[in-house]
Amino acid sequence: MSGPDHSSPQETDPDGLTRVGWLEALGFWFKLGFISFGGPAGQIALMHEELVVRRRWISEKRFLHALHYCMVLPGPEAQQLATYIGWLLHKTWGGIGAGVLFVLPSLFILIALSWVYLSYGDVPWIEGLFYGVKPAVTALVIHAAYRIGSRTLSNPTLWVIAAASFLAIFFLNLPFPLIILAAAVIGVLGGRIYPAAFGSEGSHPSSEPSTGASVMGDHTPAPQHTLFNWQRLCLVLLVGGLLWVLPMGFLVLKFGGEHTLTQMSWFFTKAALLTFGGAYAVLPYVYQGAVEQFGWVTATQMMDGLALGETTPGPLIMVVTFVGFIGGYAQAVLGPDSLFWSGALAATLVTWFTFLPSFIFILAGGPLVESTHNDLKFTAPLVAITAAVVGVILNLAVFFGYHLLWPSGLGGHLDMFAAAVALSAAIALLKFKLNVIYVIAACGLAGMAYRLIM
Question: pTM higher than 0.85, yes or no?
């Protein structure tokens, strides 16, 4: 694998553009890790503004080509995009640096917030904060279903797939991976039989038709490290495989296959391979495993974790870090005298196994993608999977809404405050398109005020 490119910021290309220095790039990726709020759409828009428009490190066309590849992959597309561009500019270590720094700040922030949540969650004002945030989370899930559905369900066939996936998980309780597999098969067959129904359209159109010359422009000759060769592919797969096998093997030998840390590592490896359609798509799978199957977190804690993930920088899928910390802490995986370190270790392992496949996908597939501009295939299965994801996310919204509005079950009382906050949050997001962070903050303040007054 290639080493980092330590080119000096003073070196210039023939068109007069300053080359991107290794340390300069690392500084940007580190900064991005702290300011990447707003979910994948906001993070991609931020990278576009900084890298394409302002800094001109990469051209519009190359940026979108990289983005389309990341959208086809399972995993967090914004983090993968950062990894891809880092690799494009500074070889393998550039990609690793960009991807790690995109995630690292969020890891430390969520470990700290998870500990505060467990240690001080029963303090009245903090309890009130989360009481107000939970309805906002329900509205966020509804908003995610609407946002993905509005850009995906473009014909009756896709509506049927979405409805079928909702019925399959809501009434039949089928596992999420089976629903995704079925949708992929339908997409493969449907793309051949009825291709018009499975056409793929870009979901991140650009508002900048032209940004001028770029360091990595449309006609920039392909750098040597971006050229595909089998030896490099095998090396990436070998190293990536070892980075998975060695820690997993250590956990199995040290703790056994049934230990919480081992089960978490294996479960979140599978989750990393099923995140087609973004973080909201994999949440039902994480819920089924973390809440129902293993009992690492409760449904209430899952909603609180989603709220923390929405209001901290980094990919939304970092909610798995919260799940890992809570589960490791509750199970006391390092003993009752090391609860914080139990949670921190579990959170770190979960994050490692969740993001490792993304690095392998980019570093292994990047050269192939660079050699096949505008020739991406397999879009029909992706379209079908995304349609199925809409139904799965809707099921998650129904589940959250049920536990939120009737905390004691359908036979109990309706929580009118929660209903009012959820409705207000939904209107703010769907009609007025307010920023997610502002909506969550307002709902949290409302919950604090209500708890302190009542």
Answer: no
376's CB contacts (< 8 A; 6+ apart) are: 68, 69, 72, 369
- Rounded mean pLDDT of the chain? 84
Predicted local confidence at residue 31, as pLDDT: 87
Which mean pLDDT values do the consecutive 10-residue runs of the chain (454 residues) have? 48 52 89 75 76 86 77 82 92 94 93 92 80 85 82 89 93 82 89 80 42 66 82 95 97 95 96 73 83 91 85 84 96 94 97 95 87 56 81 83 82 91 94 85 92 85
Residue spans of the domains in the chain: they are 22-103, 137-198+222-399
